[in-house]
Design a protein that fits this description.
The chain is of the alpha+beta class and 362 residues long. It folds into 2 domains: 94 residues, 3-layer Sandwich (Rieske Iron-sulfur Protein); 218 residues, Naphthalene 1,2-dioxygenase Alpha Subunit, Chain A, domain 1. It contains 10 helices and 20 strands. The longest helix is centred in the C-terminal third of the chain and has 31 residues. The structure holds FE2/S2 (inorganic) cluster and fe (ii) ion.
Length: 362
């Protein structure tokens, strides 16, 4: 049966196969050093380390000889030595030496391209094509010194698409996040727009209620905002299957006011499947105001961490239920699902582009 016909509910949706021809987050820069470590990404065990000049390297973690994990090995210069029988691998994945043997094998470890931007390292696990570079989303703010970027990591006990559905859904803010982000129910009455943009779905809600918006601004902007029209966006777009860019700028002043101020907030969510039922989840917030205000940034990080813990909690509960509950089920659709449903179609397009219309065995 075609993938499109299989999806009757979120339970079917999270069974879609992983898509590899996209960039995913592999970790924070600080995760990687000259000591090899292993991470499982999209069901593949990968060994990561840095060469002596700091270049990050990612290769299959399974030694070509007897499947020993190379992450348990050690570095000799830039070469990774397998701890079991001592085969040495270059950072290109080639065999540098085999103990007690003069001839070398031409076999190679699979090496994965990486890209380090700001404090983050991204990985390409699919076919290496010319289009691969162009497929890297615009994340220039992560390396832009006008922005201060902070963030965190958590492991999700759930399929990555449960989190992507959450990110494409503005209607849970006033409930799941009622204790953290303090959105009121009236916020949900603001009409939202949904449009296809850059291959993803851009969903946005613009709040122009001065009393509500002013509460989201740091205190010393309150005076500046007095008597002026102010607005705050809560929008976002899934730019790849595993990278979501949230845009939440606040504007002080009318659109045609030459002194109109904008306080930019770009929040990225990076969800990289670990297995079908666990996911790596990083988030980062980039702001171009209050960059030097450590206290503000700490406080902001605390609020965001509390909020994203609520998403983590919801994802884990849904996965647990879906694993155990096998009833016939017709999913109900509500008005707030518009972006999420369109996103399912985009996801389906990505799956079909890589795996075809239907599973091979069908
Ligand atoms: S398993 Fe790695 S050298 Fe034998
Ligand atoms: Fe959320």
């Amino acid at each position: 049966m075609a993938y499109a016909d299989q999806i009757k509910s979120v339970k079917d949706y999270i069974k879609l196969p992983f898509v590899y021809n996209h960039w995913y987050m592999a970790g924070m820069s600080e995760d990687f050093s000259q000591t090899p470590i292993a991470k499982t990404l999209l069901n593949r065990s990968i060994v990561f380390y840095r060469t002596q000049d700091g270049t990050p390297v990612a290769m299959q973690n399974r030694c070509l000889h007897r499947s020993f994990p190379l992450s348990e090995g050690y570095m000799e210069g830039d070469n990774l030595v397998c701890r079991y029988h001592g085969i040495r691998y270059t950072p290109e994945g080639e065999i540098a030496s085999i103990p007690c043997q003069k001839s070398l094998s031409q076999k190679k470890l699979h090496r994965y391209p990486l890209k380090e931007v700001g404090q983050f390292v991204f990985i390409w696990m699919g076919d290496e094509t010319e289009g691969m570079e162009d497929a890297f989303p615009d994340l220039s703010h992560l390396a832009d010194t006008n922005f201060r970027t902070f963030g965190d990591f958590m492991l999700l006990e759930g399929n990555y698409l449960l989190m992507l559905e959450n990110l494409n859904d503005l209607s849970h803010f006033a409930y799941l996040h009622k204790d953290s982000f303090v959105f009121s129910e009236e916020f949900l009455d603001i009409p939202f727009t949904v449009e296809k943009r850059n291959g993803g779905i851009f969903c946005n809600r613009i709040d122009r209620d001065p009393a509500r918006v002013v509460k989201t601004l740091p205190p010393h902007y309150h005076e500046l905002a007095e008597g002026k029209p102010i607005e705050r966006w809560d929008g976002g777009i899934a730019v790849t299957p595993g990278i979501f860019t949230g845009l939440a700028p606040s504007y002080i002043g009318a659109e045609d006011d030459p002194d109109r101020m904008v306080l930019n907030q770009i929040i990225n969510h990076y969800v990289t499947p670990e297995t079908e039922s666990t996911s790596h989840y990083w988030w980062s917030m980039s702001i171009d105001y209050e960059q030097n205000n450590d206290m503000f940034c700490e406080m902001f990080k605390g609020i965001l961490t509390t909020g994203f813990d609520e998403d983590k909690w919801a994802v884990a509960h849904m996965q647990k239920l879906l694993d155990k509950d096998h009833i016939e089920f017709d999913e109900m659709v509500i008005a707030g699902d518009q972006a999420g449903l369109l996103y399912r179609k985009v996801m389906l397009d990505w799956v079909i582009a890589e795996h075809g219309e239907a599973p091979k065995s069908a």
